[in-house]
Write a structure and sequence with these properties.
The chain is built from two helices and two strands. It is of the alpha+beta class and 123 residues long. Strands 1-2 form a two-stranded antiparallel sheet. The radius of gyration is 35 Å and the shape is rod-shaped.
Length: 123
Amino acid sequence: MFFAPGHEPTEQELSIMGTFGVRAAHALRASIRSRTVALELDRTRALLAVVGQAISQLSLAHTLETAVARVAELLDADRLAVYLRDGERLYSAVDVGLAGPHARLAERLLELALGPFRSRGSW
């Protein structure tokens, strides 16, 4: 602030301006802290979204592995698989004792099961 010569502020005005300055500085610091906390909150939310997605995928994979292992044990099966569909394609989510292009075979069996021959009995 600039004051013309002979118009200097009084002690009371200086005290009021000092109080205003302290309050303004406090408000600026609070604003900076608020922005910092908001940025940290955004980062935390993004991280939680990633972790949540990873946990859900890991949980699905673990659940499928456990289920396949248990079913294979109950049925005394050497070969077993669970296939999931991604669009029009099937992929093996979990398999035990299988090798080769078994996902293509599963796709073909699904086509037959859902295709025009679905209403006919098997052999």
